[in-house]
Amino acid sequence: MESLSETQWDVVIEGTGLRQSLLALALSRSNKKVLHVDQNEYYGGIAAAFSLQEIEEWAERVTKEPTTGPFRNASIWRASDEDPTGGEALSFSRAYSLSLSPQIIYSKSKLLSQLVSSQVYRQLEFQAVGNWWIYVPTVPSEPAQTATLKRLPNGREDIFEDSSIENRAKRCLMKFLKFVADYENHAEIWESHAKSGLPQFLASQFQLSSQLQAVICALTLSLNSPEETSVGYSLPRIKRHLTSIGVFGPGFGAVVPKWGGGAEIAQVACRAGAVGGGVYVLGTGISSSQQSDNDAPIEVQLSNGETVQTKHLARFTEFVSDTQPNNTTISRIMAVVSSPLTSLFENSVEGSPVPAVSVIVFPPGTLTNDSIAHRYPAYVIPHSSDAGECPVGQCVLYATTLCTTNSKDLLETALNAFLTTHGEDTKLLYSVYYEQQECGWQTKDLSDRSNPSFDLAFNDLLLEDVAAEWKAILGSDVDESTFMQFEKRPNMDDGDDDYDNEH
Amino acid sequence: MASDESLTALKILMIGPSGAGKSALLIRYCDDQFDSESSTATIGVDFKRKKLSVHGKAYQLFLLDTAGQERFRTLSNSYYRGAHGVILVYDISNRQSFQAMERWFEEAESNAIPGAIMYLVGSKLDKAASSRVVEYTEGEQLAARHGAGFCEVSSKTRENVRKPFVEIVDKIVKSPELLAATSRQTGAVTVTGSEGAGWSSCAC
């Protein structure tokens, strides 16, 4: 087998996370010689999806080498097999594909149009994200009323039909929705409030009740407290949510790739890179690199001891550096439960596809108890077995909140509260807690903790990074409109083979 | 005649070590071409399509090659998604390639859906007289241990090149559970925005 160092590479890409994999896809028809390496033995970087056994190996590595990646404090809990209450049990390891950084992809995201124009959507299956819920806790004054999930209105008709919103409030809400659909052209309403908190803006400019403020805040998927979630950050996100509904069919505004989300996109993009001639090596990182002067090739030392030469080296910083200010951390739990949670995934609009993913928002304060001060919103995002991440009859729950001293308790409380509202005899079978630090970002000065590595919805800023790197590699005279625009591959197809006529 | 879209689509993967002759077999079967000089992986071909009729019914085969990702064993899980069959290829004139097959079986069995059909192929049968190092019975026994079909082929002389494809398809179509497992697409949505109504609740 010839060694890697015998080739004069045009591009070496380090890492197979979404950014790097999409870069490989973008370069897959460029006739560049691409060497794509990843220090991990798996594809996907922080977006990787794992079987149960792979999660155990990953958790062990996180514990042993806490400084080499963005993850910390991983711990696994598994229902004991001798559990006397019985119930459904965990299936075999590979029946699961649990995602480390699950994200929904809004229908309006450029990622989807780029997956289509680059042809790789053919290797992906998408499932709908429908049914958004907000958690309404028991109020001390009415202890008889149990905590419930209230479905968020799915567009204008839903709001008209919602009897829990009084008419005056409906008019205010409609006024806000009309504004946000065209907020860019109404700077006079919001620009002076851009840095203010969203709830105050909704109250002062649109007279929205605190209940409706919570609904609007939920749509931002912000990890910050509502007061610290700025108007400038929120408006594009709310608009994206509202304008995405119905784009690809009634009743939903976002999708998730089946079998593990971003990990699946990364793998399909890397295969496109390989089909285009790219060479793939996993379990091999980059130890160091040097360049004697700007015109000389870059010498790259691989962790397997080989040295290769390349014109370009694409190293997106995946990990936190000490110099980065306001370095934040999130807490996550991925859990497997013993129920299909059918009522969560019922289609809300006639003729809409059955969603495989639902979103449950726990606004700050709703989970407060004696030991928990619930300051930041918590999100629980259930995936049904249609998402391809667990066996039929079970669901995967992904819970996320900003990391605080009691965020683990908070997430566990959120999961329990959710399971209690669901009412069925649903058991927790498996649960993994971990913390994730934010990753470096090169394109923009990010405010409001909108770091794409944390975002619960795919953030199009990531595509700007990819396009910038693509342009840097192909040169400034490249036609930007050709980014991710590919013809369908010729398959030299349609030979017929009629076995029966000869046998 | 039925249009291609209405035919039952079968996804069949080619795997095995570099240089075993996967692409040569695929190109001989699909295009009836053979290039003895070409030893490098084909660039730019994602998959090949071929219509195959078995027992009076036509099937649309989607035949996927490794795109070189076998070289450092970096095939992804997603490569195996929805595959009805896996053809594992080794070179009968190369002992090392045969020895690697146990690991390839392992990878295929753990990544493909349960019940996917495996088929082992010993390639370069034209070299049998001059440089065979793996006996027919060795291949036959390995295949039997994994419940896989088996044959030896020569892409150079065309000998048996259709046999693996015909036999694997024959086994696939006799497995209704396998066909059902791969056609279940509850709630699948399309994101192209231009094809059809934009989404479909059932793609069966």
TrEMBL record, chain A:
InterPro entries: FAD/NAD-bd_sf (IPR036188), GDP_dissociation_inhibitor (IPR018203), Mrs6 (IPR017230). One of its GO terms (biological process) is vesicle-mediated transport. One of its GO terms (cellular component) is cytosol. Pfam families: GDI. It comes from the Eukaryota. One of its GO terms (molecular function) is GDP-dissociation inhibitor activity. Coiled coil: none annotated. Belongs to the Rab GDI family. This is Rab proteins geranylgeranyltransferase.
From TrEMBL, chain B:
It comes from the Eukaryota. The keyword Protein transport applies. Belongs to the small GTPase superfamily. Rab family. Keywords: GTP-binding, Lipoprotein, Methylation, Nucleotide-binding, Prenylation, Protein transport, Transport. It holds the Pfam family Ras. InterPro entries: P-loop_NTPase, Rab, Small_GTP-bd, Small_GTPase. PROSITE patterns: RAB (PS51419), RAS (PS51421). GO terms for biological process: protein transport. This is Ras-related protein Rab-18. GO terms for molecular function: GTP binding; GTPase activity.
